[in-house]
Amino acid sequence: MEHSHSHGGGHSHGHDHGGEGASLPLLHWEWLDFGKLRGMDKRRWLGGAALLWVLSGLYIVSADQQAVVTRFGAVVEPRVMPGIHYALPWPVDSVTKLKVRQFQRRVIGGDAPDTVLGRLQPLASQFLTGDQNILHLRVVTQYSVAVPADYLFRSADVAQLTGAVVESELARRIARRTVDSVLTTEKAAIQEEVRAGAQRVLNEYRAGVQLASVNIENASPPPEAADAFRDVASARADSSRIVSEAQGYANDVIPRARGEGQQLLEAAQGYKLRKVNEAQGDASRFTQVAVEYGRAADVNGRRIYAEAMEEILPRIKKLIVDSRGNLDLTIIRKGDGPTAKP
Q: Per-domain residue ranges for the chain?
């Protein structure tokens, strides 16, 4: 084995194992440039970061959502439907997703906890009717997002705006009706009118919401007048019940009376026809008899006289003598004894 040491401007170690490869480690360290390696790693990291930044623009809108894309604060895509989409990465574009199928609630005439606890807020729930009565109303409206861009940027507080518009329409509709109609028959009509009217106003404001329902959950008089209202309602119920009973009785009696009247009319008409037919038959028969009688008046006269006498005096023995005093023995009834001589 041979060892060599050189100190002329450098230090090297050589290990000769009988071949030329003993000098390769020296050449490897001479070719390695750490500056170039650091530059290559930096470029790779920058390229990877740039690629990740570009890919970060991909986003997914689920089936129950819609999205709005803004670029430096300005709306560039007001409605993005469900699916996979791309926007310029942050901070250029910003994507806001909204659940358009989810209903939101707004309570007019109190807060949401008041609905559960049954409490009233007099100042918030009082409405004036057309006949100058005060009612306490609690109304719940449900709405959803209709136009995402308007919903996000046209109003600072969409829930408050929706509640104020519904409350205004409700006050206007209540003021046109009496207290009795609001408490009884007009509730469904008021709800639909308020929903339609409030929707028109919200569309004019471009609030971006769609009203699903307006429901009057509670309508009651003030506590001071509650007993009087209950008495009136009870009297109205009694009146309605009595009217219904009377109507039922009328519905039972009137058809029966009409049926009996029709039956009497039909019987009278039948009796009339029968009598007319009988009279016409008797007249026709009398006319025919009169014609036949006129053909042999003498003979028919005697026959009719004999038949009449036989009918009038059925049990008396009779002798018939003609106008000349002759006795007619041919018409003596059978069974009579010997005829007495005159």
A: 55-99, 104-221, 224-295, 298-342
